[in-house]
Amino acid sequence: MFSIGTIGFYALLFFAVYVQVFLLITYIDSRTTIPRRKKQIKLEKYPTVTVLVPCYNEEGTIGGTVESLLRLRYPKKKLNIVLVDNNSTDNTFNIMSAYEKNEQVKVLFCAEQGKHVALNYGLEHTNTDLVATLDADSFIAPSALERVVEVFNNDKEVQSVVSSIVIHNPKTFIQFAQKAEYEMSIYVKNMLAQIGGLHVTPGPFSVFRRSIFDKVGMYRQAYNTEDCELAMRIQKQGYKIWYCADSYVYTVCPDTISKLFKQRIRWMYGFFRNLIDYKDMIFNPKYAGLAFFTLPSSIISFVAIIAVFGFAIYNIGNLIAKLIVRISAAGVGSVVPSFSVTEIYIPATLIVMVLLYVMILAAIFIGRNMSRQKLLSVKDIVMFVIMSGTLAPAWVIKSMVDVVRSKQSNWQQEKSR
Amino acid sequence: MNNKHYPQHDWKKYLIVFLITLGIFLIAIYLSSALSNKRFAEMRTFQDKLATDILSSETRFALLERTSCEHFVDDALLSEELNLFGERLSRMKKQLSASDPAVEQLSRYYSLLQVKDYLLVTQLAEKCDTDPIIMLHFTKGDCAACDRQQYVVDDVHKDYTELSLYSFDYDTELSAVRTLISTLGVKEKDLPVLILNDEVFKQGLSEEDLRNKLAEFFPEEVSDIGEWEEILE
User: Fold this and answer.
1) Beta-sheet pairing, A130-134 with A49-55
2) Which candidate in A180, A204, B192, B193 could, as Cys together with A384 as Cys, close a disulfide (CB 3.0–4.6 Å)?
3) Best residue in B9, B20, B87 for a mutation probing chain A (most A CBs within 10 Å)
4) Bridge partners of A250?
C-alpha cells in the first residue's frame, strides 16, 4: 500500500493546489474591485500625514528616497517627512540634514539602535492623522500616497494600508529572481487582504492611522520583524488592514546571495517567533483568513519547501548512485537512455504538478499586470524558480534551526555593507 | 477585544475550493489511468501475440515427429520478441512501480512465457540437433550485485542479439519459475547467477568475463578487431 512518504507527498501536493485555487477563486471574485487607476485622483479630504523614514547606513539611497517623497502628489502643508538617523556610521546623517532646508523635512537623531526604536522615536514626534513608514532604500511613486489615503477616507474601519512593492532596477541574477517573487507577492497579498489575511505591514511602505498606535501600542523589537508583529497585533485586537494594489513603492533588494540570505533568515526567524507568540490566533474563528488561511498555509509551505528539497536531493542522489554503479559495471556506453514516446506513462501527480506550475505562473503574471510591469519577461521567472528550489530551502532550514537555538539576526548587521 | 471591523469568515468558499481541488485530483487520476490503460492494453496485445506464437510453436513441435526439423528451425526462436517485450516491461516498471498490480501481472506472465520459450528451445535443440546459445539470468531486487549484473547483461546483450536470454526474478511467486529454479539448483546466496548453456556462474560475471565467454560461442560477433586486423594486413 502507500508509504508515509507517498501520503505526505500527496497531502502536500493537495495543499499546494488548494492554496493556488483559493487565491485564484478570490481573484475571480474580487478582480473588478481591485483598483488599476492611471489618472490622478482628487480626494474629498486630505488628512495630515507624516512619513517616517528610519535610516541606518543608507547613504547610497536616502537621497533618492527623500526626493521621491518630495515629489508626492499631496498638499505640502498636509505632508511631513521625518527622517530618523539610527546612529549611522556613514554619511547618511549629513545627506539627510541637507534636506532640512525644506520645511516639510525634519531630521531626528536616535542614538539607541534598532529599527523599532527609531520608528517609535519618530512616532513620538508625530501628531498627524496618518503615519506612513518608508524604508530608506525605497522610492515611492508620486501617486502612491493619495491612493492609499483614499482607502482611509472611504473606509473608517481600516487602520492600516499596505502598498504594492516592486523591485527597483534589478541588475543581478538574485535581484531578477526577487523581481518575479515580489510580483507574485503583489497578487498574493492583494488576495490575502480580501479575506483579512495580511500578516505583515511591510517596512518599504505602509500607512497607519496615528490613533492605532494609541490603541494597540508602539512598535516592538519582535525579533527584528517589527512590521510582522505589528500587523498581527493590530489584527489580534480586531482591526482591519487593507491593501492598495495601485499604490506603488520601489525598493532596492539584496544584490548578492549572502545579503539575501541574511535578510531572509531575519524574516523567517522573525515570522516563526512571532507565530509562536501569536499561536492562539491560528484556527481561531475570530481572525478569519489570517487564522485559517495565511498562518496555517505558511507553516505547511515551509514544511513543503523542506520536503520537496529533501525529496529532490534523495532522488538526484539515487540517480547519481545508480549511474555510478551502471558505469562501473558496464561502462559509459551503457548509459544510453532507451526511450519511446509511445511508452510514456503520465502519472496523475505529474498532471497535477503541471497544473500547479501553470497556476503559479498565472500568479506571477497577474501580479505583474497589477504592478504594471512588462508581462513578457521570462528571465526573472526562470531565476525565481532556481532561487526557490535551491536557496529558499536553505534559509527556511537555517531559520528553523535558529528558532530552536534562539539565535536571532540583526537589522544593523544586515544593513552593514 | 473589538473584532467588529474584522472581515467575516467565508466557510463556503473553503469548502468550494476543497471540492474544486478534489475535482482536479480526480480528473488527473482519471486522465492518467485512461492513458495507462491504453498502454496496458497495448502490452496485453503484444503479450497475447507472443502467447499465440509460442502456442503455435509448441503445436508445431508436437507435430515434429511427422515433419522435418528444417520446417521448424527458421522461425522457432521467439527470444527476440520476448526480449523486446521484456525491455518494454522494464521501462514500464521504471515509470510506474514494480508493485503496481497491472505491472505485476504482466511480469508474472512474461516469466511464464520465458519458461515456455526456454523449454521449447531446449527440446527443439535435442530433437533437431540445433545448437542454440542460451543464457539464463537469475536475479532479485534489493541486491546491489544483482543490479550491477543486470546492467552488464543488458549492455552485453545489445551486442549478442542471437543469444537467447532469459531473465528470472528469484522472488517470483510462480510455480513454473520456482520449479525451474529448483531444477537448476539456483540458491539465493549465489545470486546473481548466470547459466550460459550448461556452465553455471555463481555471483555472476564481470562485463569483460561475460564478453570473453560469449566470444567463444559467437566468434563472428566479436570479430570487429579481427576484421580490422585483416584489412590492415
Assistant:
1) parallel
2) A180
3) B9
4) A139, A166
Cell of B130: 540445433
A25 contacts B91? CB cut-off 8 A: no
Block residue for cell numbers 501580479: A367
B87's enclosing H/E stretch is: helix B79-95
> What are the start-end ranges of the H helices in A31-156?
62-70, 92-98, 115-124, 144-154
- Cα–Cα dist A312/A42, whole Å: 54
pLDDT at B221 over 60: no
Answer yes or no: is the ipTM higher than 0.90. no
Q: Which three cell numbers stand for residue A287?
A: 481572525
In degrees, rounded to 5, the angle at the alpha carbon of residue A113 between the alpha carbons of residues A166 and A220 is 70
Q: Residue A202, by phi and psi: left (phi above 0), alpha (psi -120 to 50) or beta?
A: beta
Pairing type for strands B164-169 and A138-140 reads unpaired
Give CA torsion, residues A269, A271, A276, A279, to 10 deg. -170
Quick check: B8 contacting A, CB < 8 Å? Answer: yes
> Closest by alpha carbon to A49, among A13, A16, A73?
A73
A14 interaction partners in chain B (CB closer than 8 Å):
21, 25
The string of pLDDT tens digits covering residues B166-180 is: 889 888 888 888 998
Query: How many Å apart are CA A399 and CA A306, to the nearest integer?
Result: 12
For A221, half-sphere exposure in the C-beta direction (CA atoms, 13 angstrom radius) is: 8
B residues 110-149 near A, CB within 8 Å? Answer: 144, 147-149
Residue B7, preceding bond cis, omega within 30 degrees? no
State whether residue B41 sits within 8 Å of chain A by CB: no
Q: What is the pLDDT of residues A262-274, one digit of tens each?
A: 999 999 999 999 9
Residue B31 neighbours by CB under 8 Å, 6+ apart: A346, A348, A351
Element (H, E) at A49: strand A49-55
Nearest residue, CB atoms, A21 vs list B8, B17, B155: B17
Beta bridge partners of A248: A164
B1 close contact with A: CB closer than 8 A: yes
Distance CA A19, CA A378 (A): 24
Q: Give residue B58's identity as a one-letter amino acid code.
A: E
- Please name the residues in contact with A184: beta carbons below 8 A apart, sequence gap of 6 or more: A360, A363, A364, A367, A384
Structure confidence at residue B129 (pLDDT): 77
Interface contact B91, partner A, CB < 8 A? yes
Q: Rounded to a whole number, what is the largest CA-CA distance in chain B?
A: 101
Q: Nearest residue on chain B to A237, judged by CA atoms?
A: B1
Q: Which residue of A has its CA nearest to B7?
A: A196
Dihedral sign from CA coordinates of B153, B108, A345, B24 = negative
- The pairing of strands B193-196 and B199-201 is antiparallel
Give me the residue from B17, B95, B151 closest to A334, CB to CB: B151
Residue in B closest to A17 by C-alpha: B21
* pLDDT at position B230: 55
Encode pLDDT of B127-154 as tens digits.
777 788 889 999 988 888 898 898 898 8
Q: What is the pTM of this model?
A: 0.81
Interface test with B, best of A241, A345, A354 (most B CBs within 10 A): A345
